[in-house]
Amino acid sequence: MPPELIHVVDDDEAARDSLAFLLQSVGFTVKAHASPTAFLIDLPAVPTGCLITDLRMPELDGLQLLRELRRRHVEMPVLIITGHGDIPLAVEAMRAGAVDFLEKPFDDEALLASVHAALASQQEQSRQIGQKSEIAARIEQLSARERQVLEGLIAGHPNKVIAYDLGISIRTIEIYRANVMNKMRATSLSDLIRMTMTVPLPPPPRQTAAE
Predict the structure, then answer these.
(1) What is the top-level taxon of the source organism (predicted)?
(2) Sequence-ordered alpha helix ranges (H) in the chain
């Protein structure tokens, strides 16, 4: 697995180089940018990763950069480096979506811990998005009748109630229920319910005569 990429944006060359050296010393790949504008120019080509940006910079500050990233729907985690007098702005940045801020002079270990936490959060978010997409795709594979049975199951209805509501036999419901469990790859009813709690059920497809 390639090392995680960290983007560093700071107009102070010495601070930028020092931060890049620290990150590289623990195995990160670092891409340094002399300004938010330079970073935004590179943005279409940069891989996902984590962004560390100074708050106070000419032309475009760290908070404006964060807002521009969110406007472009870039979900890269952002850490803000701030001076003592910039705490109110740093708090505003947190409200705008920054994952953390560190006040200068910051402790190296605190910075590294914050970066690791941000990357872990990003990985978990990516995992959840992928999981939701997979569950949604499984639901789309269900027939109209199977969707109706699924809705009955997650509503907590027993087979006989679902059978009565749909006007079919309990044995037929058992077959549909087995099909639902198989297509959803659910190991139990509780597993099935957990899946549907993360993905809202879309409108059912039109039922055909064969169903």
Answers:
(1) Bacteria
(2) 13-25, 36-42, 62-71, 87-96, 108-140, 144-154, 159-166, 170-184, 189-198
CB of 153 closer than 8 Å to CB of 176: no
Architecture of the domain delimited by 5-128: 3-Layer(aba) Sandwich (3.40)
Distances (CA, A) of 2 to 5, 27, 30, 139: 9, 10, 12, 34
Q: Pick left, alpha or beta for residue 171 (phi over 0 → left; psi -120 to 50 → alpha; otherwise beta).
A: alpha
Is 141-198 CATH 1.10.10.10?
yes
**DSSP assignment of 103-143, as one string?**
ESSPPHHHHHHHHHHHHHHHHHHHHHHHHHHHHHHHHHTS-
Q: Cα–Cα distance between 114 and 99 in angstroms, integer?
A: 9
Q: Are 65 and 37 in contact (CB under 8 A)?
A: no
Domain boundaries, the chain: 5-128, 141-198
Triad 21, 95, 104: Cα angle to 5°: 35
